Recover the amino acids of this structure.
């Protein structure tokens, strides 16, 4: 027994702790994906491409690896609904992928969190010469290039002509603007007990974009000149939002409009509960496979436009993680995936639109001779044609997803709990101003194409 | 018989413990201490630390003092959710009544008791997600079975999945369905421990079934009742799956604190704020449990 037992115990404790620390250090270095001797390992995350596009992606990666033998790409496909959670969890564990496919609706949240790298210094070419300006605009926040546009979706309208006829409507008499469609929807519901359409007002709310599509701006410059504040107290916006909320409250849209989101909205159309579905042209294939009977009666029409006269464009983006050890190589991989040839090859196997004008010149996007026989081709050509009159109604603003979430929460209360719309908008304004104040000030610039407002470079 | 110390009963002539080496008990406890330390105590302490920091997936943790708690208390959605957590506690007495009734039925059933026990226990082993999804279909406002039955009886359809407080009631129904089998088993164990002689004495004294239950069985079950009340209250405060799946898409103001924590953590990526929410919930549950135990001790 040692002379001083407590000193002996303390010594043993130190030894045990040192061993534990050394072990955890070994573990940490084992987790580090930096490879000093072998090829550079890049991890690429995509959204819901397996198993349909496995062959395309594997071929794409193999070609990239042949071009860059010093790079080894590991491809991971992630479900759409899980990507935000998984990316956050991976980043918290310091294991974020190098290149990640994000949707325009939430990508700027990761910009706000500092999760995506600025690509300006890493790209092998000029993005302005490669991508459509309307798609690229979204990728620039606070003067930095945070993403590259990949494929696009322009909303088109699918109509179930059989169901329309039951409600006394046809594709010729169907309204092309929202006020007419809302009137027709109430009559349609009375006649059939079904719904003409479902528009996402609550869950995954489209209302802030719809306000922009209407040519109205939900934000305005602060009177002090620096930064933005809510413009939701604009009487035109109040009237516009009230019209939608009242329409929902009259029961002319299913509950899914408030609590469902995009997935349930498609299910409703496939189940024959709604006669009209406004979504990307690529979803026609899903309808064909899941509901062939509905597909047989489906016709493709241009989507309704707001008062600004522009179609809404949805953009898939490729970003490089701010945690990437190899941002240059990761940017190169993103550039390769989004180049015109590869985007065209992708568009040939699925009904999406490339974000590169060079690909769009291909005859693949021409109207088919018989639209009835080739509905998919017609939908594709219609969306490609609409591209000239389309733009993203998501503001390139780091705070945008947070503003959207605050809007969604409050508007649900108006839709479901009967809260007063004016009061709700005033509460949203208060939330928005608080959120905007917590970000670096941004400014509004007029969009030369549409005349609508967009956010510009941050002041700081 | 004379009662002695443990050492005496083990046959030792003196009162010295048998284990002379002070490290021996630690060797037995070591594995449990390490597992608990690494997977329970250390993470809990970390959460407390994170609650005082600004911490996201990409930055931090940076010490911000009480800022997260101030933000939390100034935000009405936390208060809405906390209020709903307390409303959710209403499921506890219902759950206790249903599970005690089920236990009594199973206990007194002469034939088929075993099968009924298995049947009533089935919801417990059903995964919460499966149960919640099934109930979501039943509660569907347009085509669900419940509204179909209601409307066929000439009653108005109920907005189970979108209108407050029906959203909360829908989730509580799932909790009730899924949980009562477990508590039924706990009550059954309690019923088996009630001294037979007491019940027989009550019967001889002329007490009917109801009086016998009220004056003999129920007082004997008091420790079990206290246990069930405590455990089910804690579970009700921590409920997540039933709300997350059954009323998916409903506003956060229809949900309780744990779904709010999940949302802040996994969807908003604000780890510091989520930790603060967790710490506050822990303190509330702790306070409630202490109060509950005190009240029960006073009652007994």
């Amino acid at each position: 027994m040692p002379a001083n037992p407590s000193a002996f115990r303390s010594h043993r404790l130190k030894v045990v702790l040192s061993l534990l620390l050394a072990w955890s250090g070994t573990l940490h270095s084992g987790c580090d994906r930096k490879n000093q001797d072998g090829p550079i390992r890049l991890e690429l995350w995509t959204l819901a491409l397996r198993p349909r596009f496995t062959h395309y992606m594997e071929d794409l990666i193999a070609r990239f690896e042949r071009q860059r033998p010093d790079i080894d790409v590991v491809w991971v496909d992630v479900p759409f609904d899980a990507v935000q959670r998984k990316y956050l969890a991976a980043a918290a564990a310091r294991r974020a992928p190098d290149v990640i496919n994000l949707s325009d609706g939430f990508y700027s949240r990761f910009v706000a969190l500092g999760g995506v790298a600025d690509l300006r210094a890493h790209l092998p070419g000029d993005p302005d010469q490669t991508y459509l300006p309307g798609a690229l605009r979204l990728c620039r926040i606070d003067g930095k290039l945070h993403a590259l546009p990949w494929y696009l979706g322009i909303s088109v309208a699918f109509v179930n002509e059989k169901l329309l006829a039951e409600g006394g409507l046809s594709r010729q008499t169907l309204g092309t603007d929202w006020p007419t469609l809302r009137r027709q929807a109430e009559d349609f519901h009375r006649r059939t007990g079904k719904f003409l359409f479902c528009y996402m007002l609550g869950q995954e709310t489209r209302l802030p974009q719809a306000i922009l599509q209407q040519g109205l701006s939900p934000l305005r410059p602060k009177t002090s000149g620096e930064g933005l504040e809510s413009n939701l107290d604009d009487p035109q916006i109040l009237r516009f939002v009230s019209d939608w909320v009242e329409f929902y409250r009259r029961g002319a849209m299913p509950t899914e409009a408030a609590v469902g989101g995009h997935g349930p909205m498609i299910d409703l159309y496939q189940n024959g509960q709604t006669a009209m579905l406004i979504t990307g042209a690529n979803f026609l294939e899903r309808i064909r496979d899941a509901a062939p009977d509905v597909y047989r009666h489906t016709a493709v029409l241009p989507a309704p436009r707001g008062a600004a006269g522009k179609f809404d464009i949805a953009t898939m983006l490729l970003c490089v993680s701010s945690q990437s050890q190899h941002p240059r190589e990761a940017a190169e991989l993103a550039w390769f995936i989004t180049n015109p040839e590869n985007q065209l090859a992708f568009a040939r196997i699925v009904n999406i639109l490339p974000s590169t004008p060079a690909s769009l010149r291909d005859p693949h996007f021409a109207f088919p001779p018989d639209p009835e026989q080739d509905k998919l081709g017609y939908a594709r050509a219609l969306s490609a044609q609409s591209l000239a009159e389309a733009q993203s109604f998501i503001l390139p603003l780091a705070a945008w997803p947070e503003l959207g979430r605050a809007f969604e929460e409050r508007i649900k209360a108006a839709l479901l709990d009967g809260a007063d719309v004016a009061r709700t908008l005033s509460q949203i304004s208060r939330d928005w101003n608080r959120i905007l104040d917590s970000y670096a000030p941004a400014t509004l610039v007029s969009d030369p194409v549409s005349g609508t407002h967009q956010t510009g470079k941050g002041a700081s | 018989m004379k009662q002695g110390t443990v050492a005496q009963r083990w046959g030792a002539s003196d009162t010295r413990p048998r284990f002379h080496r002070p490290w021996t008990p630690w060797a037995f406890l070591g594995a449990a201490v390490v597992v608990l330390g690494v997977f329970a105590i250390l993470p809990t302490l970390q959460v407390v630390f994170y609650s005082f920091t600004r911490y996201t997936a990409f930055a931090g943790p940076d010490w911000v003092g009480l800022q997260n708690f101030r933000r939390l208390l100034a935000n009405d959605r936390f208060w809405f959710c906390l209020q709903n957590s307390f409303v959710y506690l209403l499921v506890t007495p219902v759950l206790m009544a249903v599970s005690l009734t089920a236990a009594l039925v199973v206990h007194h059933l002469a034939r088929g008791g075993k099968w009924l026990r298995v049947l009533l226990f089935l919801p417990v082993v059903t995964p919460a997600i499966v149960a919640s999804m099934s109930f979501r279909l039943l509660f569907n406002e347009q085509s669900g079975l419940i509204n179909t039955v209601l409307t066929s009886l000439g009653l108005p359809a109920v907005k189970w999945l979108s209108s407050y407080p029906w959203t909360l009631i829908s989730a509580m129904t799932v909790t009730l369905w899924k949980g009562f089998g477990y508590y039924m088993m706990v009550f059954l164990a309690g019923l088996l421990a009630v001294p037979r002689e007491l019940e027989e004495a009550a019967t001889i004294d002329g007490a009917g079934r109801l009086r016998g239950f009220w004056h003999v069985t129920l007082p004997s079950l008091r420790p079990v009742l206290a246990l069930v009340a405590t455990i089910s209250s804690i579970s009700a405060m921590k409920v997540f799956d039933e709300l997350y799946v059954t009323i998916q898409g409903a506003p956060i103001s229809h949900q309780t604190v744990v779904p709010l924590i999940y949302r802040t953590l996994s969807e908003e990526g604000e780890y510091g704020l989520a930790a603060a929410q967790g710490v506050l919930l822990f303190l509330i549950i702790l306070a409630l449990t202490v109060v509950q135990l005190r009240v029960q001790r006073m009652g007994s």
The two ends of chain A are 67 Å apart (CA to CA). Chain A touches chain B through 30 residues (CB under 8 Å).
